[in-house]
Amino acid sequence: MKTFIIIGVVAAVYIVFVIIKLMKLNSRAKEIATKAMKERELLKKEDEEPLLSEDGTLSLHDRQYIACGANQIYLRGERLDTLETGSDQDEIRHMLRKDWHINSRDKLLNTIDWLATSGHRVYFKPIWQILTTLPVRDRAEALGKLQQQFAAKGDDASIEQYAVNISECYKHLREISDCFEGKKCKLDALTWDLGRAINLCRWGYDAGFLSREEAMRNIRKFGWELLHNYTSWANLGENYLIGFAMWSGDIEQLDELYGGHCDLLSEDSSPWVLLESK
């Protein structure tokens, strides 16, 4: 009888011990599950946050905004994914003086402001309206009146030459490519203005005319407007091409730009490919 009592006590102690262990194990399991849940939530939030580039300062959106100026910067062989272009400061200052007549912070800011508020798109829109809505016989008169309207404001832009450039280059691009196709395609030359403004902010930073904060503030503003104006990188880039076409009329240079445009849309290392989730 005494033996059975001892066995019973030992069994009871063992059962209590097992219950305590199970309680501890269950508690630990809950802790692990809670921790795992928190980690999953954290990862989810991190996935929703913009990714960081290698320098740890540019978000996914920042890099997308910088990439809006890629048409121009690509052919210069400069960086496509950072605020810094990678070019020498003296070289950039020389380029700004030669190509833009910019040799000071004030001139840089004035040019950026002109591109942001006016640029060449103020000519493109009414010219394109005339070219696409009026019969050929009525276009010369309409373009002449448009020229007078700008001249009255003290603007001596050559409207008729711009119209010729647009007509010839648009036809050329349509013949050699699938540019300007699709119902959602826009033609407004906005990228020609704001894409260059983005690059001027980058060059201005590299040249020492702008602080990092100033440059990125403007780039974010211009990039946001571009990304919300177009539905694809292709259409965004096309509006750089058509703006250049109007301004220059140089078919050979346009072909070179178009080649870069195709590279940006297809190369694995292109920001337009890497950041296609815009």
Number of strands: 0
Count up the domains.
2
Low-confidence stretches: 14-19, 21-54
Order of helices and strands: HHHHHHHHHHHHH
The average pLDDT value, as a whole number, equals 85
Report the structural category. Answer: mainly alpha
Strand content: under 5%
Sheet bearing the most strands, described?
none
- State the end-to-end distance: 81 Å
Shape: globular
Radius of gyration: 30 Å
The helix content is over 70%
Helical run tally: 13
Give the structure's gist in a few sentences.
By secondary structure, this protein is mostly helical.
Features:
13 helices
Task: Characterize the structure shown.
- Keywords: Membrane, Transmembrane, Transmembrane helix.
- The chain has helices at 2-48, 60-67, 70-75, 89-100, 105-117, 121-133, 136-152, 159-176, 190-206, 212-229, 233-248, 251-266, 271-274.
- It starts with a helix and ends with a helix.
- The longest helix is centred in the N-terminal third of the chain and has 47 residues, at 2-48.
- The protein has 2 domains: 1-49; 60-274, no CATH class.
- The model is unreliable at 14-19 and 21-54 (pLDDT under 50).
- The protein has 278 residues and is mostly helical.
